[in-house]
């Protein structure tokens, strides 16, 4: 088990969250795969290890992990939500053919936030940036 997963589990315990084997497996899968899976993909990946686990169990645990600040839910149009265990500031690039999502880092867009605040009067509390294109696998097909 990675140090990152261990640290996350300790943080959950500190916040009074009981660590079930399924919860541990879902969090570890998200942190180790970093593939932004859907709940169904998580269920299919873990079902062989946890045959009694339901899709509802996956959704309920994801909801708890989101509330605990360990996971972000990514919603893009009509597609199923995807889940991201990387809660640091970062952005996403999304393939328009296969839907693959990859993380990328970019310096702070603080100037964009400040400009938006000045021109609208809003107090900006966050931003989400997505870039769309064709991934290398789809491009080479």
How is this structure best described in words?
The chain is an alpha+beta fold and about 140 residues long. The chain is built from six helices and five strands; from the N terminus they run ααααββββαβα. It has a three-stranded mixed sheet, with no helix packed on it. α2 (about 20-35) packs across α4 (about 55-65). The longest helix has 13 residues, at about 20-35. The radius of gyration is 17 Å and the shape is globular. The mean pLDDT is about 90. It holds the Pfam family FUR. This is Peroxide operon regulator. It comes from Paenibacillus cookii. InterPro entries: FUR, Fur_C, WH-like_DNA-bd_sf, WH_DNA-bd_sf. Belongs to the Fur family.
What is the structure about, briefly put?
With 141 residues, the chain is α+β, with helices and mostly antiparallel strands. Helix content is 43%, strand content 13%. Helix 3 packs across helix 4.
Number of helices: 6
> What amount of the residues lies in strands?
5-15%
| Shape field | globular
Strand order of the largest sheet: 4-3-5
Terminus-to-terminus distance:
36 Å
| Oligomeric state of shown chains | single chain
Structural key phrases:
6 helices; alpha+beta; 5 strands; DNA-binding; 141 residues; FUR
SSE layout and pairing:
Elements: H1 3-14, H2 21-33, H3 39-46, H4 55-67, E1 72-74, E2 82-84, E3 91-95, E4 101-104, H5 110-120, E5 130-133, H6 136-139
Parallel strand pairs: 3-5
Antiparallel strand pairs: 1-2, 3-4
């Amino acid at each position: 088990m990675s140090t990152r997963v261990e640290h996350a589990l300790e943080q959950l315990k500190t916040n009074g969250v009981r660590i079930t084997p399924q919860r541990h497996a879902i969090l570890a899968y998200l942190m180790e795969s970093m593939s932004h899976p859907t709940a169904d993909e998580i269920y299919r990946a873990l079902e062989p290890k946890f045959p009694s686990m339901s899709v509802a169990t996956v959704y309920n645990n994801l909801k708890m992990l989101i509330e605990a600040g360990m996971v972000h839910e990514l919603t893009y149009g009509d597609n199923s939500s995807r889940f991201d265990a990387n809660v640091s500031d970062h952005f996403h690039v999304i393939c328009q053919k296969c839907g693959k999502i990859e993380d990328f880092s970019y310096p702070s867009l603080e100037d964009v936030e400040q400009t938006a605040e000045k021109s609208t009067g809003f107090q900006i509390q966050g931003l989400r940036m997505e870039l769309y294109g064709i991934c290398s696998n789809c491009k080479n097909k």
